[in-house]
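User: Predict the complex.
Assistant: Input components as received:
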Amino acid sequence: MAASPRDRTTPVVFVVLGILGAAFVALPLVGLITRAPWSRAGEILSEDSSRAALRLSIEVSLLAAGIDLLLGMPLAWLLARKSFAGRTLLRGLVVLPLVMPPVVAGVALLAALGRRGLVGGWLDRTFDLQITFTTGAAVLATAFVSFPLVVLSVEAGLRALDPRLEAAAATMGASRATILRRVTLPLLAPQIVAGVVLAWARALGEFGATLMFAGNLAGRTQTLPLAVFQLSQTDPQGATVLALSLVIVSLGVIVALRRRFLST
Amino acid sequence: MRRSLSAAVLAFVVLCACSSSSSTPTSADATSTRAELTVFAASSLTAAFTQIGTDFEAANPGTIVTFNFGPSDGLARQIESEGAADVFASASGTWMDDVQDKVGVSGRTDFAKNRLIVITPSDNPANIQSFDDLATPGVQVVLAAEGVPVGDYARQALDGAGIAKDVLKNVVSNEADDASVVAKIIAGEADAAIVYSSDVTEQVSPDVQAVEIPDDVNVIATYPIAVVTGAPEPDLGGSFVTFVTSTEGQATLATFGFLPPA
């Protein structure tokens, strides 16, 4: 494309600060790459505990993203389309897991779903069912912290949607289900995908809430971030290899999907 | 080019201005003798060393003691890669050896011992009455991770009692440090854990039940302390080590359930 007038007036300050910003994000990654003991990479990644952690992380993050989607979309729709008492408060509440320190999220989940928690205590007494220290706990912890990303993204999409398109479909006799399937969802697809991908990536990287609520047991609750942390205590260099595997997985998916769904 | 350079300089100046203004001490009571001592100490020392730090500050006006409590293995790795510690107090000789080999230490001395104990939540949901009860199928046991001294000692004791295989099957979580293990039991999330007897402090004891581990299988932890080579405050670090091993320091450690080093 030929240089437009807009290109010529790109403020230099933006360029400089933008480069600084990019370096700020990229530098730690470069640090990881330079510190990783590449000769031991194969050995570290093929260890049972590493493979178990990677597999568990993928399972847990996908399930969490699924829960976020299942519960987040309807909630986003209510928030965007219905006005009801306490909607503003609910909007704030939904964002909370995103800004809450993950350790606090873990403590809160224990208070609600732990063996002595509000609901968890009842589950334990009535059904002898315990959530803490199970893979389910890891799924819930990661779903909790990533939930707002789906709601925020889908709600923003719904609000930006031109209501006349749905109205037009209705005047042509389309049923509510048809409108949802043929008009609303296709138009909303980029926001849904963006929300789910971000939620998935956040779930994949979750550490604090998982450690607090699900504990740390290889094969059951030790997701990749927990494995990285544990390895960093005894073999910090080895931990960089494991950390890079996590970065590569999430970067790969985000870049691939970004090109497909999120590009301008 | 000139414009971009000046913008970069401007950005740099702004950054410097921000950082210098935030690091300027604003309190008027700052004295020239003010010194900050950084102590890296095993998680199990949290309560005792916090008290000793307060006493040390009182005995040395103008001194501020900052603690970094954590698992001894993790602390050793931090000291080896980042330095920054004046004093290292480890829950095992192994990790002190590691720092001694890789960084160097001076004035190393053993200052306390600790023994292992089983704790359960106050209502003892799995009805643990003896060390061997940890092997009962279905008991939810929490340990510190391997590499963390209390986690390694616990596994040694289990080996000694011949119940390691069954108990390790019951482990539901390998926690990052001693304090995190205790926290899981206080919260009532797990049935039992192996920790140090010093963990059952006055503050903790209402929330837990303690079950003794017999002497013949118990493992005694020995705590070394030393000044780290290259410490920013080596002299003050030396004074702190002396303070910990003094009658006063030893009395405080005894109050918090630690055994004398010899």
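The longest helix of chain B spans residues 2-23.
Let me know if you want any component modeled separately.
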